[in-house]
Amino acid sequence: MTVYYRGPAGTVTESHFVTHAPDGSAYDLNDLRNIMRVRRRGPRFAAVLAAAVAVILAGVAVGWLMSDMGSLLVVLVAVVAAVFVLRLASPVYTLRADHRDQPVELYSTRDKVDFERVCRNLERALEDLRPA
């Protein structure tokens, strides 16, 4: 049996996509249709964006009241903190498909690199599954 991928998402073999979800669902590759990659913002995007803006504004306000060198440092720290806060709003990548005419979510993550790895290996498995 050829294993194309084994990782946090599950396992992609020559015939199945097996998830590591609690139920350990196994999807026969022959039964997968309409495979879609979906990228969406995280559920807390608006709140995180508002928090990042608030951090920057607070840094500018405190910097305004301090000396020149102190204000530059405070604004710099505020910008770094805002960037860190915005990282919390990273997008969610989801792999969806129809399995035996039922919509299923095969995999969902915030890790773009691993998501692309899963998609690439699933594509390879599907290509090798087709008759030459």
From TrEMBL:
Bilayer-spanning residue ranges: 45-66, 72-90
Keyword Transmembrane annotated: yes
Keywords: Membrane, Transmembrane, Transmembrane helix
Protein name, as recorded: Uncharacterized protein
Annotated organism of origin: Paractinoplanes atraurantiacus
